[in-house]
């Protein structure tokens, strides 16, 4: 072990490693607390709002992760749609159990991401944006064209709720609270994977791929493999959330998976703060809650969201999370000045 | 056995021959200088070696392995690392994080281990941290571990660039004008560091530099190219007295005025 | 396939291609000169169409007055937006892209609220059809093609011959150097946005009588523009023209023989395959 002059600085990095060691516990505790909420809140509408927020957090966090590898992703809706449709079809047409359909839908989506990713991620950023945007639209046309398979413009009806969980047969998803717990588990699972990816060496490499791919290549990093990995994992996780969505709302149609979905996710992520891991969690929660004011008036909602996006980009580029940093700095600078006075 | 061999390598861009029939060797543990007037094809040669450009003809091999057409990241894995003329770092990262990226090849990364953050993963991270500190110590950057790379003064940024490339554990290091923009003190420090890298780690070094005094002091052997062709090769004394070399530099100067 | 049918299809391809070319022209200009992918381009197109509706149909102004007025109004709006929103972040290209996205959907939602949900019809003053080589094309569409060609020639002449055009090209090469030579960066940006948004508005005004106009026409137009520019090669005006006509051709033929929705998939697959084979587009320039 090299005993060097940077004694205190050493400790900072090693401290970080120890913090990370405790992260499974942190996640577990938060998960438990969230799961206990239905004991206190029985209002179905509130639970519904929370459930919506939770699966949108999955959508937004996975979207943000792909952005963090330096890719302009305009097709989140495409892969979420693949997840939803796959799961719905696997259960309604093939009679599979939801608990099989959901992970399979995730795998299907991840596979599609790999197939689309390899040829397109090597192109310049904006081409990837064009292609992913077009992918979403093309899929929608496919859903409409092949009516017998996908239900056409009307979509797929009567998607059954998840069958009773294997060992707990009284959890039959006849109540909102059952869906609530599932959404919490799914969200924490996804967030944990994303968190560990970001904080580990993998995250360091993803950032390197984003910041300087020429340099990264000269260090032996295979850029394409990492970009495709992030793209596939995130698309797969988002697809599983899409599958949850299908079985929660019982009905999906091509309209649910339009470019607007991706635009919303982009807005949640950037308003929340794309630099910070917690940014899009906060952005999604706050914006979706605020959007409840305009429930049913989609245009006013979008007006508010896009207006906020413009304001944030101009005045608070690092998003709402940076407010926390700013306050922190204000306090530490005032602490410093008092220290100077005492000295 | 020769380390790096360029065998009749040429590179054409449309009608322009950037490099013509270049023959060059770099042996184990050598420090070789590559000099020539501006536009002589030095950076092109680097790019050919690292795989960023494909040779139009000829063969490049390293430790008996053919490098032609190998993609840059594979070339790096084969043991060749480089720095760039314009300082390249990861600007948003701290000094420590920058070097850690360089070490990514060091230990095998297990997805599952990292996901569950098992003790074995934490041990690996601590080891990488120690290795990074070693390199930073060696380069004299250990006090700046948590500084943002983009905030460092120019000279230290270049040192960081070298440190990152060093982290890959290369057996051959290509340095592209490492002394540019440095004052005499910084330059002397960098020259010393380069020499130490060669002695301590046994890394062979190919250096492109315009600072001829530094090149003469550092390199045991110098290759001179002009218009993409090798015009001379030898020890610093031989080069200094070579007529063709003198003409290349002076001839150019007359043209320039 | 009968001779007349072939010609008809070609004529259709041309008229669609002309619309797409006009649409993409403004965006290409903004990207080529200022390195900005102005997503709000679609909103400008939509606003141009609605301006034609309000000035032409509602107020009854002559079409020949509506065109310049509409271009001017939307162009001025573009300049205002540039000064207020883009200038502060001119150097951060990623931020500009997301800002333009926000702007596009902001204006679109505003459009829904102000203009209402129902699509508006716009009367056309060019009635009747033109017969060329045995195929018919409505005068409206013919006008689009003619005006489109004029706009392209006009833009070309402007960029190559006029003082301001040369200034813009200098700015595109090296903004700092241009500034030092007395070419005001601010003025170039304002002019660029005026022309770019003006072109989008022109496309909207011309298209208004041909298609039904809705507030969402903008987003659809943006995607088409992006496809055209992507296929043609970022920053290349001739490339954008060629690709606009190729896409127009695929759409015309595809709609005739396969149906509208499949056509869309065909266009998309074609673009993807083409870019996979030739990543810089038809006439794309490698930019550092």
Topology:
The complex is a heterotrimer of chains A (343), B (257) and C (288).
Chain A: H1 7-21, H2 23-40, H3 44-67, H4 76-92, H5 98-120, H6 125-145, H7 147-150, H8 176-199, H9 201-211, H10 213-218, H11 223-249, H12 259-272, H13 279-291, H14 298-315, H15 322-342
Helix pairs in contact in A: 2-8, 3-8, 3-11, 3-12, 3-13, 4-5, 4-6, 4-11, 5-11, 8-9, 8-11, 12-13, 12-14
Chain B: E1 4-13, E2 16-26, E3 31-35, H1 42-50, E4 57-62, E5 65-66, H2 72-77, E6 80-82, H3 95-102, H4 111-116, H5 119-139, H6 154-167, E7 172-176, H7 184-201, E8 204-208, H8 212-218, E9 221-226, E10 229-234, H9 236-240, H10 243-256
Parallel strand pairs in B: 3-8, 3-9, 6-7, 7-8
Antiparallel strand pairs in B: 1-2, 1-4, 4-5, 9-10
Chain C: H1 3-34, H2 41-58, H3 63-86, H4 93-115, E1 129-132, E2 135-138, H5 139-161, H6 163-173, H7 175-180, H8 185-207, H9 217-232, H10 237-257, H11 260-277
What would you note in describing this structure?
The complex is a heterotrimer of chains A (343), B (257) and C (288). Chain A is an all-alpha fold. Chain A folds into 2 domains: 23-257, no CATH class; 259-343, no CATH class. Chain A has 15 helices and no strands. The longest helix of chain A has 27 residues, at 223-249. By secondary structure, chain B is of the alpha/beta class. Chain B has helices spanning 42-50, 72-77, 95-102, 111-116, 119-139, 154-167, 184-201, 212-218, 236-240, 243-256, and strands at residues 4-13, 16-26, 31-35, 57-62, 65-66, 80-82, 172-176, 204-208, 221-226, 229-234. In chain B, the strands form 2 sheets. In chain B, strands 6-7-8-3-9-10 form a 6-stranded mixed beta sheet, with helices on both faces. In chain B, strands 2-1-4-5 form a 4-stranded antiparallel beta sheet, with helices on one face. In chain B, strand 9 (221-226) and strand 10 form a beta hairpin. Chain C is mainly α and 288 residues long. Chain C has a domain at 22-215. In chain C, helix 2 (41-58) runs parallel beside helix 4. The longest helix of chain C is centred in the first third of the chain and has 32 residues, at 3-34. The chains are: A mainly alpha (343), B alpha/beta (257), C mainly alpha (288). Chain A binds chain B through residues 1-2, 4-6, 9-10, 12-14, 17, 20-21, 23-24, 193, 196-197, 200-202, 204-205, 207-208, 211-212, 214-223, and chain B through 50, 71-74, 76-77, 81-82, 84, 88-93, 96-97, 100-102, 104-105, 109, 111, 114-117, 121-122, 125-126, 128-130, 133-134, 136-137, 142-143, 145-146, 164-165, 167-168.
């Amino acid at each position: 072990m090299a005993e060097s002059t940077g004694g205190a600085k050493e400790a900072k990095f090693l401290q970080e490693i120890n913090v990370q060691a405790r992260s499974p516990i942190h996640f577990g505790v938060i998960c438990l607390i969230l799961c206990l909420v239905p004991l206190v809140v029985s209002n179905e509408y509130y639970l519904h709002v929370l459930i919506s927020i939770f699966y949108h957090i999955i959508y937004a966090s996975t979207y943000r992760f792909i952005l963090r590898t330096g890719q302009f992703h305009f097709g989140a809706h495409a892969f979420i749609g693949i997840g939803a449709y796959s799961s719905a079809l696997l259960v309604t047409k093939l009679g599979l159990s939801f608990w099989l359909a959901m992970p399979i839908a995730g795998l299907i989506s991840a596979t599609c991401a790999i197939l689309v990713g390899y040829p397109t991620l090597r192109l310049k950023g904006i081409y990837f944006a064009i292609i992913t945007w077009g992918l979403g639209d093309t899929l929608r046309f496919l859903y409409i064209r092949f009516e017998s398979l996908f239900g056409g413009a009307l979509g797929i009806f009567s998607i059954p709720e998840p069958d009773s969980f294997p060992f707990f047969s009284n959890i039959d998803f006849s109540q909102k609270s059952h869906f609530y717990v599932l959404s919490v588990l799914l969200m924490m699972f996804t967030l944990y994977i994303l968190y560990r990816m970001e904080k580990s060496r993998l995250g360091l490499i993803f950032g390197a791929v984003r910041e300087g791919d020429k340099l990264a290549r000269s260090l032996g990093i295979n850029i394409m493999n990492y970009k495709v990995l992030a793209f596939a994992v995130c698309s797969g996780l988002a697809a599983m959330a899409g599958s949850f969505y299908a079985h929660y709302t019982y009905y999906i149609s091509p309209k649910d998976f339009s470019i607007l979905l991706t635009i919303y996710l982009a807005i949640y992520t950037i308003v929340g703060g794309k630099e910070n891991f917690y940014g899009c969690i906060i952005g999604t929660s706050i914006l979706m809650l605020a959007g409840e004011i305009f429930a049913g008036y989609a245009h006013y909602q979008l007006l508010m969201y896009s207006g906020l996006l413009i304001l944030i980009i101009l005045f608070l580029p690092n998003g709402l999370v940076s407010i926390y940093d700013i306050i922190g700095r204000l306090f530490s600078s005032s602490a410093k000045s008092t220290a100077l006075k005492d000295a | 056995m020769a380390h790096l061999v360029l065998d009749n390598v040429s590179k054409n861009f449309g009608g322009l021959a950037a490099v013509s029939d270049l023959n060059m060797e770099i042996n184990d543990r050598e420090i070789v200088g590559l000099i020539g007037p501006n536009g002589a094809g030095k950076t092109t040669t680097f790019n050919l070696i690292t795989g960023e450009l494909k040779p139009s003809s000829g063969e490049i091999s390293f430790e008996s392995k053919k490098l032609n057409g190998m993609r840059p990241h594979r070339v790096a894995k084969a043991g060749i690392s480089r720095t760039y003329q314009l300082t390249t770092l990861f600007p948003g990262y701290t000094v420590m994080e920058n070097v850690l990226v360089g070490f990514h090849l060091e230990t095998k990364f297990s997805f599952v281990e990292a996901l569950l953050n098992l003790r074995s993963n934490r041990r690996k991270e601590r080891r990488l941290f120690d290795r990074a500190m070693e390199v930073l110590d060696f380069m004299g950057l250990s006090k700046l571990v948590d500084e943002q790379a983009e905030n460092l003064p120019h000279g230290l940024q270049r040192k960081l660039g070298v440190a990152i490339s060093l982290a890959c554990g290369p057996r051959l290091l290509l340095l592209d004008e490492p002394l540019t923009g440095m004052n005499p003190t910084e330059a002397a420090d960098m020259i010393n560091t380069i020499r130490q890298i060669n002695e301590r780690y046994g890394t062979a070094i190919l250096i492109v530099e315009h600072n001829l005094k530094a090149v003469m002091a550092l390199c045991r052997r110098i290759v001179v190219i002009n218009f993409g062709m090798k015009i001379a090769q030898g020890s610093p004394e031989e080069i200094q007295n070579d007529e063709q070399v003198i003409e290349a530099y002076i001839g150019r100067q007359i043209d320039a005025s | 396939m009968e001779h007349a049918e072939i010609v008809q299809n070609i004529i259709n391809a041309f008229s669609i291609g002309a619309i797409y070319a006009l649409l993409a022209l403004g965006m290409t200009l903004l990207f080529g000169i200022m390195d900005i992918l102005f997503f709000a381009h679609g909103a400008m197109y939509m606003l141009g169409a609605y301006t034609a509706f309000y000035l032409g149909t509602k107020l009854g102004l002559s079409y020949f007055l509506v065109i310049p007025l509409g271009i001017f109004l939307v162009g001025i709006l573009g300049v205002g937006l540039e000064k207020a929103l883009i200038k502060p972040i001119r150097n951060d290209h990623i931020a500009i892209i997301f800002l333009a996205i926000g702007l596009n959907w902001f204006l679109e939602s505003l459009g829904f609220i102000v203009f209402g949900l129902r699509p508006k019809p716009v009367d056309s003053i060019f009635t009747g059809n033109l017969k060329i080589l045995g195929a018919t094309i409505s005068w409206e569409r013919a006008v689009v093609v003619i005006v489109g060609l004029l706009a392209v020639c006009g833009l070309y002449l402007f960029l190559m011959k006029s003082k301001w055009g040369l200034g813009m090209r200098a700015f595109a090469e090296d903004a700092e150097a241009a500034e030092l030579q007395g070419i005001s960066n601010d003025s170039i940006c304002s002019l660029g946005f005026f022309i770019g948004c003006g072109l989008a508005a022109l496309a909207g005004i011309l298209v208004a009588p041909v298609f039904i106009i809705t507030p969402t026409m903008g987003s659809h137009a943006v995607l088409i523009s992006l496809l055209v520019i992507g296929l043609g090669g970022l920053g290349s005006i001739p490339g954008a023209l060629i690709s606009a006509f190729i896409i127009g051709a695929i759409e015309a033929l595809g709609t005739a023989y396969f149906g509208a929705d499949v056509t869309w998939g065909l266009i998309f697959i074609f673009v993807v395959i083409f870019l996979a084979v030739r990543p810089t587009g038809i006439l794309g320039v490698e930019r550092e």
